[in-house]
Amino acid sequence: MSNFFQDILAEVHQYYDGLVAFFPRLLMGIIILVVTWVISRQIRNAADRRLKKQMEDPLLAEFLATMARALVFIFGLLFALKALGLGGITASILAGAGITAFIIGFALRDIGENFLAGILLAFKRPFRVGDFIETGATKGRVISLNIRDTHLKTPDGKDVYVPNAQFIKIPLINYTIDGFLRYDFVLGIPTSADYEKAMNDIASSVNSIEGVIQRRRKTQVFVSGIAPGRVDVTVSFWIDTFKIRTTADVIRSEVFKKVQAEVDKLAGDKS
C-alpha cells in the first residue's frame, strides 16, 4: 500500500514540476496576447483616423482599419503559441492551411461568404455611412460596415445587422447615394375647375416648401389620366438629401398639406 501512495505522490510531484516549468511560458503567452490586443486596438484607431482624413469614403476606411487590427491580432496569436512551446502546432497550422481553409470554408461557409461580401462591399461602395438603403424587407440608414454584417438604423429606431452576403444576392436600393430623391403622387381635379391654373398653383406650392429642389431637378405637374368628372394629375418633386435639415418624410408631409390646401381652394371656388 505504501508503494502505491509513493507512486501517486511521485506522479503529483512530476505534474507539479511540469506545471512550474510551463508557468513562465504560459505567463509569457498571456502577456503577448494582452499586448497584441492593445497594440491591434491602437493600430485600428490610428488607421481609422488617418484613412478617414485621406479617403472620401469613411465606410471603406473603417473596414480597412478593422482588417488591419485582425491581421495584427492573428500574428500576435501565432507568437503566443510559439512562446507556449507550441511552435510545432503553429507550423502544422500554416503547413495545412490549404486543407484547413477548405474544411473551415465548408463548415463555416456562411461566415466566409459574409466576410468576402464585406470586402466586395468595402471596395465597390454601393453605399456610404449615412445613406438610406433598402434590402429585402429592411430599410434603414447605414451606421457601419463590419467584417460579417452591416449595421442599419431603421426609421423607427431599431438596430438591424444585415449579413453582408445579402447585399450581393438580392437587389439593393440606395435612396440617397446621389443626393436626389423623388416622390410622386396622384390627385384628382374637377373638370369644372380651371385645372391648368390649378396645376401651376400646385407646382408653386410644392416649390415653396424648404428642401424641395427647384433648379437642378424641377417639380412637374402633369395630367396622367381622365375619369368622369375629374382630371387625374401627377405631382412629381425632388428632395436634396444632402442639404435637408429635416427628414424626407416630413418634407413630403408638408407638400401634401400644401397641395391639399390648393385642392380645398378649388372646392371653395366651385361652391
Account of the 3D structure:
The chain is an alpha+beta fold. The protein has three domains: 2-95, Helix Hairpins; 126-174, SH3 type barrels, CATH 2.30.30.60; 180-270, Alpha-Beta Plaits, CATH 3.30.70.100. It contains eight helices and eight strands; from the N terminus they run H-H-H-H-H-E-E-E-E-H-E-E-H-E-E-H. The protein has helices at residues 2-54, 58-83, 87-95, 97-107, 109-124, 164-169, 195-207, 248-270, and strands spanning 132-135, 138-145, 149-153, 159-163, 172-174, 180-190, 220-227, 230-240. It has a five-stranded antiparallel sheet with strand order 4-3-2-1-5. A three-stranded antiparallel sheet has the order 6-8-7. A hairpin with a 3-residue loop joins strand 2 (138-145) and strand 3. The mean pLDDT is 77.
**What profile does the largest beta sheet have?**
5 strands, antiparallel
The whole-angstrom Rg is 32 Å
Helical/strand content category: alpha+beta
Gross CATH architecture of the largest domain: Orthogonal Bundle
Low-pLDDT stretches are: none
Overall helicity: 55-70%
Fraction of residues in β-strands: 15-25%
Terminal Cα span? 116 Å
Return the CATH topology of the largest domain: Helix Hairpins
What characteristic shape results from the CA principal axes?
rod-shaped
Order of helical and strand elements: HHHHHEEEEHEEHEEH
